[in-house]
Model the fold of this input.
Amino acid sequence: MISDTAPRPADSDAPSVVIVLTTLPADADTETFGETLVRERLASCVSIGAPMTSIYAWKGAIERARERQVAIKTARDKVPLLKARLAALHPYDVPELLVLPVIDGGEAYLAWVRECTAG
Done:
């Protein structure tokens, strides 16, 4: 089960920015997926990687799939809304959804991420 809240760093001065990772099928319309998240202010930036091969266990078998890694930069307080939106947009039954805390970064960049996702 996916938690509704992102992990909170012990340091209250830590930046409130996270990177959310997911994968999509290599032939999916990843640009529309990313643009939707940015337009809805759920992300400041969505970076879409080149097609790759993923090897994983699924329903008792070893599977291979062509996928694209998607890195979503967002504010930590947007994670619950982003999780719900990913569930609605994502074609997989069990999509990759990993929330990675950003422990440091360029102040201007972190401020930009927060500004883009405010509201």
